[in-house]
Amino acid sequence: MRCFPALFAGFLVAAAPAFAMDMPPRKPGLWELKMEFDSRNLPPRTMKQCIDAATDKIMNANFGGAAQEACSRREISKAGDTIVVDSVCKFGAALSTSHAVVSGRFDSDYMVDITSTRAGTATHMKIAAKWLGPCAAGQRPGDVIMSNGMTMNMLDVQKGAPPKRP
To answer: Is residue 166 included in any domain, yes or no?
Structure first.
């Protein structure tokens, strides 16, 4: 369980080019994200995010920044409720190619299917996200609650605060 945050971070780095764009804003409240890692022998993982408009924008921007600048190719197309992102990016000496398909409605539920290849290793991750309702009592916008009980607030993390262990 302890290695999950590091593995998840690794998948997010591989997936970052797919998200380095202006995604539609999600409905404020509590979102549940179920992640499946098809290319690894990892069980599905679940996390929850409490967001408002400002923290949703920050979380989306965190996938851009340096990742966006490292990309030599980024093609985005949209048809109805589906967004397709193809990118080629360089992180250090490693070249990463990503193909992501995002579909659904950002006010209730959406799916993300990401295939990335980096340094000859392919990864595949699926994310099913659904809106659960208002954030729970005691939660703050920016809270991310991992399935192992670890909680971090993205605003606090930006200020250098460590995650809270269960």
So the answer is: no
Give the structural domain span for 77: 4-158
Is 42 or 44 the better-scoring residue by pLDDT?
Answer: 44
Q: What angle do CA 19, 143, 38 make, to 5 degrees?
A: 45
Beta bridge partners, 36, equal: 126
Record the pTM: 0.80
d(C-alpha 106, C-alpha 61), whole Å:
16
Q: Is residue 164 part of a domain?
A: no
Contact 67, 89 (CB under 8 A): yes
Do residues 64 and 19 lie in contact, with contact meaning Cβ atoms separated by under 8 Å?
yes
pLDDT at 58 over 90: no
- The total of structural domains in the chain comes to 1
